[in-house]
Design brief:
The protein is an alpha+beta fold and 181 residues long. Helices cover 58% and strands 10% of the residues. The radius of gyration is 17 Å and the shape is globular.
Length: 181
Amino acid sequence: MSQFAERASALGADFRIAKMSWPSGLALLGFYLGSDSGLEKRPLICLNGAHHPAAVATAFLHEVGHHVTAKLFSTRNEIVQLSRQTGYEAHLSDPRELAADVLVSVGVYPRNMAAKLFDAESARKIVASADQRIVSSAAAKAARRYGVDLESIPMQKRLQYQAGLIHFSRLRQALLDEYDL
């Protein structure tokens, strides 16, 4: 967490973390309050520390994406967007959310890793069940690489994490396929 605070500070933002472990709090990953939010100080990145460290890191990257692109996408009197583990389809049609998700995808899958994972993905055989596809997919390989053992996570979090893994994996694959990025 101290590394997140140092990186946020270097980017001109403050950083806060809170553990919101109650069931309704688990859906929240974090949020970003920009300079136009009415804060008298610097912009603020807040994260929910009740999640797996890899999920917290993903949320941090997403919120940093908002900070980095704030001037490009900012509008006056903008409503705070809470980063949740649901609603990824809506992110694809919202330029602010998509830009933040691109930063996450590129951060989680550096180019060489993405090229290796997704080349192998296209060559693999189609597996019979959805469970087997998730376990054998590039998303599951990335989860294991970052220390996320999906089988050991409670079902409530597991479904959220799987949705995020699939979203960021497919976005990364599209960036590689379409733009060779």
